[in-house]
Amino acid sequence: MIELTRAKNAREAHHRFILNLISTGILSTVLKNRSRIKTKSEKKTANLPDIPTDNSSIWLHKTRRAQHSGEGADVPCGSCTACCTSSYFIHIQPDGQETLASIPKKLLFRAPGLPQGNVLMGYDKNGHCPMFKDNKCSIYKTRPQTCRDYDCRVFPATGLSVGADKPLIDQQALRWKFDLSTPLAQKELAAVHATAQFIREHADCFPNEFIPTNATQQAVLAIKVYTVFLDLPDASDNNDTDKLNRTLADAMLETYTKFKCQDVA
Ligand code: SF4
Question: Residue of the nearest CA to atom 5 in ligand 1?
Fold first, then answer.
């Protein structure tokens, strides 16, 4: 009986908190931007077929485990080579010895703001990676970890757009269609969207430079800390929007630290 009362209280607290988010405009912004992205998607991918992909919940947990372990993503890219031809600087860490040995030194330069040994590889005048040859990666077996980790499904998963300067990736990302047939898949994806939107709009609630400036890294961060929006704290008495935002930001910072240190489900 006590357990039932606790569960009821928790549900009511959660419900009050959602109402609070609605009244502060956070959820309406999320929904408004989601519909904006959908319109853009319909426009850009009008002549291209959708690509059905995993149940979003299964994908999300697989992606989180890969982010945690560094094992790399398993992406059914097919013939798509958008990420190799979209003007990306590719980061290579000092421990990527095999990768470093496969790339001519003249193509690498020190990564600004990172410790010695971290390097970047640029792109040619067409925005192509210099190791992209004959329409494929010429160092596929020893390609950088950055390339192994890249999964453009992070964009539909978070509702973020990679940006107008990378139209091929934007177009490909918008074609993915997650299987949302289970309530958990819907709930988790809604939480990831809400987290990404919060990160985007409330960078000032976090320590300096904690929120990355590029959309890919923002999406990756949202996937790491989305659980905050799944299990919201009780803020029923909190009518102070700034305080509410700071509470959410603190919970995300704590979740981020735990993500780095603990096993990830
Ligand atoms: S190293 Fe290979 S996989 Fe990575 S961007 Fe270049 S061509 Fe693509």
Answer: 84
- Here the tokens at position 184 are 């958990």
The answer on 83 and 68 residing in a single domain is no
Q: Which residues lie with the beta carbon below 6 Å from any ligand 1 atom?
A: 84, 90, 129, 131-132, 137, 139, 143-144, 147
Question: Residue 61: what pLDDT?
Answer: 95
In this structure, the answer to whether residues 106 and 124 fall within a common structural domain is yes
Phi, psi of 115 (to 5 degrees): -60, 155
Which of 95, 126, 150 delimits the end of a domain? 150
Model pLDDT, residue 53: 95
Full residue range of the structural domain in which residue 140 is found: 76-150
Helix (H) / strand (E) containing 248: helix 241-261
Q: How confident is the model over 2-11, as a mean pLDDT?
A: 44
- Measured from the Cβ of residue 44, the count of other Cβ atoms closer than 10 Å reads 16
Give the distance, in angstroms, between the CA of residue 142 and the centroid of all CA atoms in the same chain: 24
- Domain final position from 125, 150, 175: 150
187 in a structural domain: yes
What whole-number distance in Å separates Cα of residue 123 and Cα of residue 131?
9
From CA 171, how far away is CA 131, in angstroms rounded? 23
- Percentage of the chain with pLDDT > 90? 69
Would you say 188 and 56 are in contact if contact means Cβ atoms under 8 Å apart? Answer: yes
Query: What pLDDT, on a 0 to 100 scale, did the predictor assign at position 265?
Result: 60
Whether residue 85 lies inside any domain: the answer is yes
Q: How far is the CA of 11 from the centre of ligand 1 (A)?
A: 47
Query: Residue 264 C-alpha to ligand 1 middle, in angstroms?
Result: 28
Partnered with residue 120 across adjacent β-strands are: 91, 109
Rounded distance between C-alpha atoms, residue 174 and residue 168, angstroms: 10
Q: Residues 37, 159: one domain?
A: yes
Does one domain contain both 185 and 222? yes
Domains in the chain: how many in total? 2
